[in-house]
Amino acid sequence: MGMLLLLHVVLLAVAARAPAAEAWGKEGHYMTCKIAESFLTKQASTAVKDLLPGWAGGDLAETCSWADRQRFRYRWSSPLHFADTPGDCKFDYARDCHNTKGEKDMCVVGAINNYTAALMDSSSPYDPTESLMFLAHFVGDVHQPLHCGNADDLGGNTITVHWYRRKSNLHHVWDVNVIETALKDFYDDDQSTMIQAIQKNITEGWADEEKQWETCRSQTKTCAEKYAQESAKLACKAYEGVEQDSTLEDDYFFAALPVVQKRIAQGGVRLAAILNKIFSVNSRLQSI
Questions:
Q1: N or C: which end of the chain has fewer CB within 10 A?
Q2: CA distance linking residue 98 with residue 110, whole number of Å
Q3: What is d(CA 149, CA 129) in angstroms, rounded to the nearest whole number?
Q4: How far apart are CA 181 and CA 152, in angstroms?
Q5: How many other C-beta atoms can be found within 10 angstroms of the C-beta atom of residue 219?
Q6: What is the pLDDT of residues 191-212, one digit of tens each?
Q7: Nearest in space to 173 (alpha carbons), one of 192, 187, 194, 159
Q8: Of 75, 70, 72, 80, residue with least CA distance to 130
């Protein structure tokens, strides 16, 4: 049975991942998609706005946490948010991209590839609005290092820590706590200011790297496997020095924050590159 069919019709008995944290949290997904919007071509921007649901108000970023809210409605989608590994700092698609039943392609990399394929196929029977919203979310997910963390601890979900004085878990630290602390300490709790700071880094500090981020030579798939490999490597560093009941404070925060900001930036640039490719192809198909 094809992967796209599995995505939409099979209800999986998903093993209980620890209390589900929203990947990147609402703020991280919003920032990723806001950055993507700024890199869209005019053609892609118009196509994206045409597909957005009315409640989004024409803003892709408003939809980018939608997939997290659907995890109980669409239970089959739960394994599509991550691609955990045995903890060897590597992602191997053949080994790691499956759900708890062993069904292949059921991971965040498989989801990105297949929702991209659905949007590129003008005859696809699948709802293009949902495909767009899933794709935008999953590109954010694959850039969060702990979404390619260790399978044994569910990507850090079972590692209880204290984030300064607050009880948390390692996965939640990377999803939410680092971003919330940065917003509070450096950006006056203003999300738009943090987005502007990341965008400035893209055009200045990371200017030499930005074109490399969006480059993808694959003609048949996305480069999501490469993004997962990057996250798996970063996840190993995220675990360093962390044990059950560790207290994580300034040293950990100041090491994690640049990684989080860069991964949000990379996710935004790459999401835009995927959407630009999708809608330039669709435009050519329609003109033939």
A1: C
A2: 9
A3: 29
A4: 28
A5: 5
A6: 999 999 999 999 999 999 999 9
A7: 159
A8: 70
